[in-house]
Amino acid sequence: MLLKALALAFLCCLISPGLQAENVDFLSDYSKLSSDTETGFTKAYVSPAASEGMKDTTGVMIDLPEFFIDPNSKYKGIKPGDAVVVGTELRNAMIRGIEGSLSVVDEPGEGVELISWAVTNVRVEKKKRGVLGYTPVGAVAYGVKKQLSDVVDKTRAFDVVFELEATDLESGEVLFAMVLDLEEAGIKAEWGNALALAEGLGRRIGCQVNNTKLPDNERAECKAIPIR
Question: Could you read off the pLDDT of 23-59 as tens digits, one per residue?
């Protein structure tokens, strides 16, 4: 039931009018972000109390991602069915990445944090009828079921921005917020790489949270974890 509710909430956000690529208001406070070289993200904010708070983390809930269309995208249509499939598969990929470090749960409880995330700066290309799908998102949805053709995989640019934050479900405090701008980070990718990117993000997030439970001399270098 929880996943169904999340899916409905995600879909409502996706089709809402006025979505912008910049200042999308997804994160709680963008003013707290600063350039970052340690976490492997382009910008980050870590609450002063995060290290102590995350030491008691027993598991995380992973929300479905929200998509924000770039206002400069010539085409702004995304099929609801494609969006749900892609959102679900991206969530599954992030879970695969995080599970190496943390337990992923579907219900809130003591020591459980919520990770919310968004894919912004999405640029959509209208496709000819009958060619796999009508949008790059549709191409990914198709690729979940079958391998993407070379044409689709090599011609659909994927220069999006990932935004995410972790919230303590008991206090409501934002423990950390992070942004990965693929273009700014010099990461060139295609829509066919979307699931690998989400899994890499999950591994870095799990690494960051797991580090809070370890002494300094035992902490991993999370930025060394490849995104692709």
Answer: 578 999 999 999 866 777 889 888 887 766 677 788 8
Confidence (pTM): 0.76
Q: How deeply is 168 buried, as exposed, middle or buried, from its count of CB atoms within 10 A (0-12, 13-18, 19+)?
A: buried
